[in-house]
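Q: Can I see a sequence and its folded structure?
A: Here is a first one.
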Amino acid sequence: MAKPKKSSKKPAEKKPASEKKTTKPDKAEKTTVEKKPVVTAPVKQESCVKKFFAKKYDGNESILTIFKDKKIYGALLGEIFGTMIIALVILTLGLYQPLYTFFLLLATIVAVYKLSGANLNPINTAGMMATRRISVIRGVLYMLAQLVGAWLGVLIVSAFAKASGPDVELTGMTMVDATYYWVVTLTEFTGAAIVGFFFARAQQFKKSAFTFAAVAAGGVLAATVVVYLVLYNYFGLTGTFMMNPAIALMYQILPTSADTVGELLLEIGKALFTYVLFPMVGGVLGFYLSDVSSQLADEQ
């Protein structure tokens, strides 16, 4: 009878309890990792004054860089064409038809808004420069373009007026009498401040060209009505205001004759003061009033 073969495998030796594998922790029990608190540096808040006078345009724009971008040429053409249209309107209809002026100005602003922002008036450009919305070099170029546009408008209207007859005069502005010099000067200043305030407020609606144009043109309408009513109702004056230094200069508001050179220089200085300097200061004041109002209202 064959003997059963013994298996070569040795019986497993029992390990001592100390050598037994430790049981894995339950999956549900998650080890907590202590996170160190992250210390962030305090954010410095910009002062209201510094924010108020901060640049709102490309700081790298200068005389060396501005002409490298072809957009500046389109902007200047827009200012020339837009100001020319406004000069044509004012010198044909005058400022005695404020509703006609409003709608024509509305259409003109919408047409050139995407090109240059539709300043179309040195009053607005001076306010844009003073509040650092545009650079000085861009502002100067815009003003020169507005002068060219106003000159073209006066030239076109004058040509048609002369062709129609020698007795036809342009509808525009008459020279102010010395008796009412300060009355006209202050009304020009007041009207320019209204125009500047509305144009600054229109900057809040840049996304909509029509809304922007409506607010800006509404400012011109409001200024025209206020100035006309004051001058006509209280002093019986008509046609003594313009509220656009470019058109006033091209309309030959500066005197060309006097008894002496000294008197001529004095009259030129007074005309510049009334129709150029004071309106531009008024426009700057209107811009600052708008910005102060925005700060007080915490408007972004």
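Q: Show me another, different protein.
A: A second, unrelated one:
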Amino acid sequence: MPVEKKAVVKALEEAKKLSKKRGFNQSIDLIVNLKDIDLKKPENRINELVEFSNPPGKLASVCVIASGDLAIRAKKAGADGVIGPEDLDALAKDKKAAKQFEKRHDFFIAEAPLMPTVGKSIGSVLGPSGKMPTPVPSNAPIDSLVDRYRRMARVMVKMNLNSQVRVGAEDMENEKIAENVQSVFSKLEGKLEKGSRNIRSAFIKTTMGPPVKIEM
């Protein structure tokens, strides 16, 4: 069972209370600590996308790798970045630029025929960060896909038994943030071998504030 909403709301109230006022709208992060998982086994590692019912404040940055009509439609859809085959060739020759490119965007969507080129050119950069593109056909409804990915977050458990995910912003209603937190828990429990029994603890914090434990 996902964590109870009232427990999350209580932790959110405390986290906001303990956080000093800053000159910007702080993010709200969820930290989940796991247990009894052997991360040496690849099948136990997690790299999942969670689609939130409530936009978590700052929207995710989405880059589309495409050519022709799909690239044109991606630009019209307002994708945060649109690059083509020639850009991939340039990035393949400049690892520093490729790493900067990877850090600028949260998610990548690629025209399916370009996936082999993506793998050869920047796969060594996107792969380790868990950001390999989602392949889509040339006639994909890119406008709705970009909008959908902007409302997503990535949940990763790779090297350490914990994951930190942005689930909201300081000015959001606690109820809405709590719903996003529940979405993360649901995704994790569905991937963990023992479900909620693999979760040791969870905390909520603002960007600059101290973590507050969620009672589970």
